[in-house]
Amino acid sequence: MTTELQHIISNSIENKKSFQKISKKGIIIVSKKAWIARTCVIIFGLLLIANNIHIGMELDEPLLVYSNMLPIYGMLYLVVGWFFYRNPATGKARNDLVAVIVPVYNQKMMIDLVFSAIFSSSYNNLEVIAVNDGSTDGSKEILDGLKNKYPKLKVIHKENEGKRKAVAIAFYQTFAKYLILVDSDSVIEKNAISEIMKTFDGNPDVGAVVGFAKAWNSQTNLLTKCQDVWYDYSFNIRKACESVFGLVMCCSGCLAGYRREAIEDYVPYWVRSKIHDSEDRELTSYVVATKWGKREMPNTYASLPKYAHKLMKSMASYDDAEDRGLTAQSFFKWKAVYVASAIVYTDVPEKLRGFLRQQQRWKKGTTRVNFFVSTFFWRRNPVMALIFYMDFMMAFITPFIIVTVFLYMPIIHQSIWIPISYFGGMQVIALAHGLDYKFRDPKATNWKYKPVMNMLTAFITSWLIFPALWNYKKNQWLTR
Question: Which residue ranges make up each domain of the chain?
Fold first, then answer.
């Protein structure tokens, strides 16, 4: 790598760098004032929920009582993520061979940076495989040029069939026992792979790992600033909560690690499938199950109903949840965890149309995988099972809660104070989420946009569940 490019990468990451610190015990460090603020948020949230339930019972209005599912579910994530998460990178970064797989589709603007960051990694025993999935923007020529720069880089060109098959092809090109997936629009920090390998070494029951993703282009406009603070919440609260139980629901494709043995029996389903349209949850889903080879499946899952088997096969056939699916598979045998010290910077949509396409794709993939996972997840930790089933349910009922609170109550009951208090509560808790970002990362500047992002989520993206269901059987890789 040229000194100039090293300088560009160093400066680019430095401008976006996370200053979040982790103690030797694995706790994400915040001040005493932050702990006081967190406690106040929890108390306020519980009082708000209690008040809304009381009003609903007084009005004999079950819809209003039921609407409290949304804040209850949110409070569970906060309590567990804040008080119980410990970073699992507790072992040593040994010298095992690691295959880094990068599926590429029309990403000519970033791939040079992406591979330069990988080859700048502090972990040296790497086999890097780039799979060009039929790019038409010049990515093919750039990858061919990069082969001369990096002798360890293997480039595979194929026709466009989706991310799932691109990952599967690379899987069969390596014998490495550990695999790291990096998206072609994501730049990893120098120690990211080492932190993932420390996690595998220190936790033999972990089959899947996800790193901490931050927005690469976080300062571009209002939308990217909102996504930046949303990513922080998604990883440092939601995934931190799920990691406590070893049940992270989605090891995001921007930076995810897998033990080969945790996913090797599931990959054939990807290869044989004739459709292409799935996402991160599939990979994650797989890791938390035992052997999923087609021959072994009837014996391995004799205790599961036939419809669970059908849902698993269906899930494996789409490219809108490939990473979630692999994660889901490990839920029977392995754990899936979040490593806050493994950091990656990923390019996020800068225009509303692209953002909504991405969100629709994610909702479709999440729904597809969750239908499958719901057939067995109740057997796992009861607290995490409660969170999972509430999360699954909220995807469908959030729009109806919004209609109940903001239309039904003021029109039918002529109560303007209920929507005002509900909206105020939403915004106060959102502001608390944003402040928590600032507490963990003192140099964060986008924390104040969390209330804006919450409004976008509640009033716009939650409704994408309907087009996602309408296009449920359509197979698309909607990233570009």
Answer: 98-348
CA angle 294, 319, 77 (to 5 degrees): 95
How far is Cα 290 from Cα 270, in angstroms, rounded to an integer? 17
Q: Give the pLDDT confidence of 263-276 residue by residue, as tens digits.
A: 887 777 655 544 34
Tokens for 214? 């931050």
- 445/228 Cα distance (integer angstroms): 10
Q: Is 98-348 a domain of CATH 3.40.50.1820? A: no
* Burial annotation 459-479 (CB, 10 A radius, 16+ → b, else e): eebbebbeebeebeeebbbbb
Bridge partners for 158 per DSSP: 133
Q: Whole-prediction pTM value? A: 0.82
Q: Which of 312, 276, 263, 245 is nearest to 476 (CA)?
A: 276
pLDDT in tens, 68-77: 666 777 788 8
How many CB atoms are located within 10 Å of the residue 139 CB?
A: 23
CB 164 within 8 A of CB 322: yes
Closest alpha carbon to 95 in 139, 50, 120, 127? 127
What is the CB neighbour count within 10 angstroms for residue 296? 12
Tokens found for residue 146: 């990069």
- Identify which of 463, 436, 469 has the alpha carbon closest to the alpha carbon of residue 40: 436
| Per-residue model confidence (pLDDT) at position 204 | 94
**What are the angstrom distances between the C-alpha of 205 and each of 233, 244, 325, 334, 461?**
26, 14, 19, 6, 36
Query: Is the sign of the CA dihedral 131, 133, 134, 138 positive or negative?
Result: negative
